[in-house]
Specification:
heterodimer, A: alpha+beta, BirA Bifunctional Protein, domain 2, seven-stranded mixed sheet, two-stranded antiparallel sheet, rod-shaped, B: Phenylalanyl-tRNA Synthetase, Chain B, domain 1, OB fold (Dihydrolipoamide Acetyltransferase, E2P), Phenylalanyl-tRNA Synthetase, Chain B, domain 3, 26% helix, elongated, binds zinc ion
């Protein structure tokens, strides 16, 4: 009987090793350890043995059964793992296939530029002021030291609706309106918006375009404050190593008036096609608010002074992104618009 | 303004600065130099030739064979110019010569005849055709007889010169003359200015003996000077004068006209020459025109005059429009022997108006418009007399005929050095300020700590202390201004709630996949009111540039749809754009009611995940979902009401409502409109964004997270197709009581398994009690009431 037991054990262990799937192994379990299996049979047959042999045989059977069970369980772990691996293998996907698209749009490049400028000045304590695009001649010209008949306000250059109403030619009327509304109090604003001039549309001209202007009025505002403010702006907008220079210019609403150049951000000043070999790029016009403008809005120009500046987001976007034709901004080709998606931070 | 550096040197020492450097200095101190133009254009080997003989080419009618003495030899040159003739002095480009435009002259054979070089026109030397004297415009230029054969043409013609092109701002009218530029350069370089020396011999007869003058409009013409020069010979001007005019951008005519133009360029003072005999009356009367009076001007145009326009008359009829253009009747010609030279001060506004009325802008009017120097009117007349006696052999009658009521005093501006420094944020010393004012030739005195400055009349732009600040700062150097920041208390800054919410709307739309577009505000009559939300009159420009851009838009959609078509026409089939911008409605006052709108247009696929087989075209509900989300985000309750609008699908259009007000429209384009715009299914939306953003959003308060579970019940209903889900939803909500928290459509079936005219709509109802866990009984009770209400309105429960 003992020999029979050993034989059984060898057979069972062989079959355990041979089992290659969880199912086969389970069959082995049922076949050898099940209620109808040979080991159970042996245990049942122990009744026929002499009483003194029974404990010894019983122990032996248990040893065999435990060994078979251990082997079987060990084998089971391996086979189960194999089975999982196989399943995982079969579940492999082609990870190079494209992901499910997340559709996102983006702002117009001009909005992008305008908001960048807005945020920059907001961080310096400015508020954003807006005003009507159809404007009174008074706010567009007269309040800005451009009386009727002034050479700088040729009617041919503006879109008039009546003798006294026109499409604003700059965002400066917002400054005039703000000054009037503030009644002599200090001001710190920037004014973005659409403006209109009687130009034929071509690569560098557009009858509709945008402007963003700034105005600061307060006690003891000096021309050096204008220079410092513009310098901060230039560095934040175009890079920390930007230099600025001011050149004398003329605007009826400022005196003195300047134009600001920045050192070329492409070549750093050595000369390239962006800066037309000069090393400098003209970015904006600015100046100290003309006393007439202050007085007309009810400010005491002896007590309060101010500076103003203005620039064209189209020009800035064209320089910044290398856009060659202003008409792109108004054509809305999605192949153009969708390029202004990613951040530059 | 074109400034020849060689000419400029007549008045000021330019310190031999290279032209580019001089240009840079001028730019940095106030007047922008737009271009530095080398007049030699790299030309070489161009000499004066003498045409010894000239015969027709036997093989070519239009060519001549010329034997030309070029100094060292006589050589054969074939010439195609019609005005070539033996005995002329001409410009010869010798073999090896370089001409503008990278042209190299080589020996050549023309129809079998050798040609050793080229006889040149002025255009071939780089001079613009419109500046070449008329006699030579169509052929070669003929030099005066005394030009030295074989000598260098570049030297003869003063082409070894550089021109600075000044971009003048309107305030710097003073720099519209060579003398004005000389003063500017003198101030920059600390150099003195040499004025032309004027001297000539006068006849014993006086000008007054031949000419009488009346000025009937002293406000518009406070100063009028006339000089009379007789026995002149009208002919071509000498080369130097022709050359200087061409540099300045003026075409030479004859010596009399050229002298007036030369002085215009030199002094900035317009002059006019009348043929004395053609004036007929020996009288000049300046007056306002009679309404409807006629004059034929020098450009041969017949012009009707109005009462506010100033004219020069011979006492009877107009002979010139004052300050704008002379009349053809008294024009100087080769037959002229006696001329009247007019130098006058015409008030700028009057000239500007008249020049605008006639659409006539001349070198003269553009200077009068900006204001000429009162103290140069008389010297310019004297200078003209001098040059006419030198160049036209004229005899200048003694004295002038003058009317003079003009104030020629210098303006006094007082300003303290402290004031200057405080405005600039600088510390410029008194000495430096004094030096700069001296360089500017502003007579200055110091009194009581103030600078008392007499501003020369040539600088009409200097009126107030701030103007002086600019003069001092620009010549001291803007680079010297330090960079500071305002010292005033800092303010917080920021966006208004409206502006901040506009950004929220934008980012929501962009997150939903829409690209922001920008279109034009000006549109055509046809597009102005399409899709407009309100019915108001359109607004038209007084002088539109085109019909396409003549009216202010009342809706954004027409242009936005044009942009969609632009893209689909370029094979981009799925386009989703939005725009925010103003529309312009007639308002209560003179200004328009500008309303900020938001518009969206979508076509093509909304969802395109092709390899996973997911494709969904845009439809009404895609866009409606975006609008609903917008409402949620802004905390406003938007509702939708079935509606109709021209060019939208009659069954697929809704108005967007806010507090019972119609604030927008959403719909699918009408198939006819889609076809007209060459579009496939396209959905659009436009709403009054301002109405939405102006609503103050309520404070946000949290609702406790539910502690008890909710229970849901589904109900499938068979409804008549005309019954709207929204109606049923209202029935359910009204019947559900306070336990019913949410109702949601989760299925719609209109397929062929349904009876004709019916559809199946399934709702999911959520019941919830924040106080406790709901019992089945409570839910059943509430739900029973809902079912009863549904049955009552004829909804049939589907098993
Ligand atoms: Zn560069």
């Amino acid at each position: 009987m003992e020999a029979q037991l050993q034989e059984l054990k060898t057979q069972a262990l062989d079959k355990i090793t041979a089992a290659s799937t969880v199912k086969e192994l389970n069959d082995v379990r049922v076949a050898y350890l099940g209620k109808k299996g040979p080991i159970t049979d042996l245990l049942k047959g122990m009744g026929k043995l002499p009483a003194e042999e029974r404990p010894k045989m019983g122990a032996l059977v248990n040893v065999v059964r435990e060994e078979v069970t251990t082997q079987l369980e060990g084998r089971m772990v391996i086979l189960e793992e194999e089975a999982i691996n196989q399943k995982l293998q079969s579940e492999t996907i082609d990870i190079t296939l494209p992901g499910r698209p997340v559709k996102t749009g983006n702002p117009h490049p001009l909005t992008r530029v305008v908001e960048e400028i807005e945020d920059l000045f907001i961080s310096m304590g400015y508020e954003v002021a807006e005003g009507p695009e159809v404007e009174k001649d008074y706010y567009n010209f007269e309040a800005l030291n451009l009386p009727k008949g002034h050479p700088a306000r040729d009617m041919q250059d503006s879109f008039y609706i009546t003798e006294d109403i026109l499409l604003r030619t700059h965002t400066s009327p917002v400054q005039a309106r703000t000054m009037e509304a503030k009644g002599g109090e200090p001001i710190k604003i920037i004014c973005p918006g659409k403006v209109y001039r009687r130009d034929s549309d071509d690569a560098t001209h557009s009858h509709q375009f945008t402007q963003i202007e700034g105005l600061v009025i307060g006690e003891d505002i000096r021309m050096s404050d204008l220079k410092g403010t513009l310098s901060v702006f230039a560095k934040k907008m175009f890079g920390d190593d930007r230099e600025i220079r001011l050149r004398p210019s003329f605007f009826p609403f400022t005196e003195p008036s300047v134009e600001m150049d920045i050192s070329c951000f492409k070549c750093g000043g050595s000369g390239c096609n962006v800066c037309k070999k000069t090393g400098w790029i003209e970015i904006l016009g600015a100046g100290m608010v003309h006393p007439n403008v202050l007085e007309m809005a009810g400010y005491d120009s002896k007590r309060l002074t101010g500076f103003a500046f203005g620039m064209g987001p189209e020009r800035i976007a064209m320089l910044k992104y290398g856009i060659e034709d202003i008409r792109h901004f108004y054509t809305n080709d999605v192949r153009f618009l969708s390029q202004f998606q990613r951040t530059e931070l | 303004m074109l400034v020849s550096i060689n000419w400029l040197k007549d008045y000021v020492n330019t310190q031999q600065l290279p032209p580019a450097e001089l240009g840079e200095k001028i730019t940095r101190s106030g007047i922008e130099v737009d271009a530095v133009i080398d007049r030699s254009h790299g030309m070489t080997n161009i000499v004066v030739g003498y045409v010894e003989s000239c015969v027709k080419h036997p093989e070519a009618d239009k060519l001549s064979i010329c034997q030309v003495n070029v100094g060292e030899e006589t050589t054969q040159i074939i010439c195609g110019a019609p005005n070539i003739a033996a005995g002329q002095k001409v410009i010869v480009a010798r073999p090896g010569a370089k001409l503008p435009g990278d042209i190299k002259i080589k020996k050549a054979k023309l129809r079998g005849e050798e040609s050793h070089g080229m006889i040149c026109s002025l255009q071939e030397l780089g001079i613009e055709g419109k500046l070449v004297p008329k006699a030579y415009a169509e052929g070669i230029y003929v030099l005066p007889e005394d030009a030295e054969t074989g000598s260098d043409v570049l030297t003869n013609f003063d082409l070894n010169d550089t021109v600075l092109e000044l971009g003048l701002t309107p305030n710097r009218a003073d720099a519209m003359s060579m003398l004005g530029v000389a003063y500017e350069v003198g101030a920059i370089l600390s150099e003195e200015v040499q004025l032309p020396e004027i001297s000539y011999k006068e006849a014993s007869d006086t000008a007054a003996s031949m000419l009488t003058l009346n000025v009937d409009a002293p406000e518009a013409n406070p100063l009028y000077v006339a000089k009379v020069v007789r026995n002149i010979k009208v002919q071509e001007s000498p080369m130097w004068l022709q050359q200087r005019l061409m540099v300045a951008g003026v075409r030479p005519h004859n010596n009399v006209v050229d002298v007036t133009n030369y002085i215009l360029m030199e002094y900035g003072q317009p002059l006019h020459a009348f043929d004395y005999d053609l004036l007929e009356t020996g009288n000049i009367t300046v007056r306002h025109a009679k309404e409807g009076e006629m004059i034929t001007t020098l450009d041969d145009a017949e012009r009707k005059l109005s009462g506010h326009q100033l004219v020069i008359t011979n006492g009877e009829k107009p002979v010139a429009i004052a300050g704008v253009m002379g009349g053809a009747d008294s024009e100087v010609s080769e037959a002229t022997t006696t001329v009247v030279i007019e130098s006058a001060y015409f008030e700028s506004g009057s000239v500007r108006q008249t020049s605008k009325d006639h659409g006539l802008r001349s070198d003269a009017s553009s200077r009068y418009e900006k204001g000429v120097d009162p103290n140069r009117v008389i010297p310019a007349a004297e200078r003209a007399a001098q040059l006419l006696s030198e160049l036209a052999g004229g005899e200048v009658l003694a004295g002038s005929v003058v009317f003079d009521e003009l104030n020629k005093e210098e303006k006094i501006v007082k300003v303290s050095p402290d004031f200057i420094n405080s405005r600039l944020g600088m510390k410029i010393s008194f000495e430096d300020m004094w030096d700069i004012l001296n360089r500017l030739k502003f007579n200055t005195e110091a009194a009581n700590g103030q600078l008392v400055i007499s501003v020369p009349t040539r600088r009409q732009d200097i009126q107030i202390p701030e103007d002086v600040i600019e003069e001092i700062a620009r010549l001291y150097g803007y680079d010297e201004i330090p960079a500071t920041l305002p010292e005033a208390e800092t303010t917080p800054g920021g966006l208004t709630p409206y502006q901040a919410k506009r950004r929220i709307v934008r980012s929501l739309l962009e997150g939903a996949g829409l690209l922001q577009a920008t279109t034009y505000s000006l549109t055509s009559e046809k597009s102005a009111k399409q899709f407009a939300l309100e019915e108001t009159e359109t607004t038209r420009l007084l002088m539109p540039m085109s019909e396409e851009r003549s009216i202010l838009r009342q809706s954004l959609l027409p242009h936005l749809l044009e942009s969609v078509t632009y893209n689909t026409a370029r094979r981009m089939d799925s386009v989703a754009l939005y725009e925010t911008g103003s529309v312009f409605l007639k308002g209560d006052d003179e200004l328009l009611n500008e309303q900020e709108h938001l518009a969206v247009a979508m076509t093509g696929l909304w969802l395109d995940n092709s390899w996973q087989g997911e494709k969904k075209p845009v439809d009404f509900f895609v866009l409606k979902g975006i609008v609903e989300t917008l409402g949620t985000k802004l905390g406003v309750q938007l509702t939708f009401e079935r509606g109709q609008m021209d060019d939208l699908h009659p069954g697929r259009t809704a108005f967007i409502m806010l507090d019972g007000q119609r604030i927008g429209v959403i719909g699918q384009l009408h198939p006819t409109e889609q076809k007209a715009r060459d579009l496939k299914t396209t959905v659009v939306m436009e709403l009054n964004l301002a109405a939405l953003l102006n609503i103050e959003t309520a404070a946000l308060l949290y609702t406790p997270v539910p502690r008890y579970p909710s229970m849901s019940r589904d109900v499938a209903l068979v409804l008549s197709k005309v019954v709207e889900a929204g109606t049923i939803e209202t029935v359910i909500r009204n019947a559900g009581g306070k336990l019913l928290k949410d109702v949601r459509v989760f299925d719609l079936y209109e397929g062929d398994k349904m009876e004709e005219g019916k559809k199946s709509v399934a709702f999911s109802l959520t019941y919830f009690d924040p106080e406790k866990t709901l019992t089945d009984e409570e839910v059943i009770n509430a739900h029973e009431k809902v079912l009863a209400a549904l049955t009552e309105v004829g909804a049939e429960l589907r098993s």
